[in-house]
Amino acid sequence: MQTDLRHTQLFKRIQKADADWLQLGAHQTPDLYDIALSPDGRTIAGSGVFAEILEGTLPQHICLVDTASGELKVVSSGPSTDLSPKWSPDGRRLAYLSDRDEPGITQLCLLDIASKAETRVTVKGLWVEYAHWSPDGGSVLLGAAERGVDLSGFQGGYTFQTSDPSLPDWTPQVDIGVDDSQWRSLWIYDVATAALRRLTAIGLNPWEACWAGDKAIACIASDGPHENDWYKASVRLIDVATGKARTVYTPKDQIGWLSASPSGTQLALVASFSSDRQSTTGDLMIVSVKDGSARRGDTNGADITFTAWQSETDILIAGIRSLETMLALCDARTARSRELWSGTETTLGGERFFPFVSPAAAPGDCAVTMEGFFTPQSLGLFRGGEMKTFKRLGPKGAEASLAALGRAEPYRWKAKDGLEIHGWLLRPVKGSGPRAVIVDVHGGPVWSWRPTCAGRSSLYVTLLQAGYAIFQPNVRGSTGRGQEFARLVAGDMGGGDAQDILSGLDQLVAEGIADPKRLGVTGVSYGGIMAAWIITQDTRFAASVVVSPVTDYVSEQLTSHIRGFCENFLLDNYKNPGGEYFKRSAIMFADRVKTPTMNICGALDRNCPAVQAIEFHRALLQHGVKSTLVHYPKEGHWVQHHPAIADYGARVVTWFQEHMPA
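Predicted structure:
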């Protein structure tokens, strides 16, 4: 395969698909991210991508949308990344993050809506990850990070570093375990006095935080700063005046999506067996700040991905229940939930990794984004028990072009042990009969596929246009079916989950949907693990594209920044000869592989370091298997920058076209 694909028609076609979706140069955005509803319910703020060229990280600007007319206007200027808008309690100001002073280094901006005046707040030497207004609007809580912190896989899975211009380019990186460049911290900005002070000291590392009344901060924190320390994080309560912290709640597993009641006396959070930070999807827990007692909320069978208090007794929640997305209101007194809305073909907050909404003042009311596999994003309001959309986003003609691209359907089948497995099947509109089918295995493994717009992925657009069907299995270990189902993958990664995929393909072939000679597999992260592993266990696949995998668990344990992943999912010790670290590593079974394999990795990836793909590639070559290694020098856990995105897409499509043409 060529090194430079920029001159090829396929590269240009994929890049054009991105340009068309992004409405390149048209000063319009196809989606809104991180939406926030104003206190009076009249305006939605959000962050949208406004692309002029497909180069690097695309600029984002803050937009305001009138909920009555649907009119959208841009209120921040570039070229920068402006994101995460938050309304002040009186609705007069917006707080948001911007990197306009230094690319990649976001700081706080406060925008006065009436005067359009901006106040810039810089945490010197650090960068700001999130900001939250105090309930009285007098202060802003900032979560800041040093420049050597770890980022989660959902953020790119690399160590956030910027070069020091005072040092020569040959200066080595030095790792001493833990140093001052790796910590996160909390800061309080006083709006009236413009005073900025640090709230936490080194020794407490906050991963996420929220106000608990006006006088305290609740945070999910660990005693160490490394990404792996998150797996053992607990809830701490910090006094705003003194900075003193105490532990409120220590979970059995992992926790996330923390929120507090208006008085700060109760907390809501999600507790679950989790793969990565920012992937916590599971049980709703209601925690008393006074004594740390915790109750599990009844969520009508859904795994929760979002919490927000709308009163002292009402907790707005969103989540996943099998193939459904749901919205509900939990009564904190009884811990029972009343379902407000659910949908299978449509999902909430589809542009995010998990369902998300923006709460309104009245309990149960909220602003939402909605979309489906072949439906562009809409803005909507849930009010008084009724869901109404008021603005369709996406490029002009997106509805028609997506409708002409394909159809999506829920797909169910029985695994070999009789367990019912769920997933999605995306089929092109054109053609019929047994098709070339590509299995796309989701990340995690504790994650799941849900209806997010295919138009946003130039790779999916190109594969569907070429005539490929895409199979998205939510195998055991996936979210949406409770903690017992999620835990089925622990100690058996590559066992029952792999058989779930094979059973699904068996049914697709038996039903005449899939051509047994044209089956492919791909995936990123855990999906990459499976794309490498499953071809060592079964020779039916005509092609595999392995992206950001783990193929050698011993080296993963010792080189990754999330060694807890191996410990949690293998339930073994890497020093155990012939144990799970050996038995679940794809490199140990490379001699069984017959499938042509493309291995893709990013040099900056610390979740699944590039050596994992390199090891598998070389093991395959040693056993005479056709293998190609694609190593991106400036990418992390997934390819997220242009034009590398188009290069990645062109290589994946080329590989499948060569070995299993549609």
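Summary: The chain has a mean pLDDT of 96.
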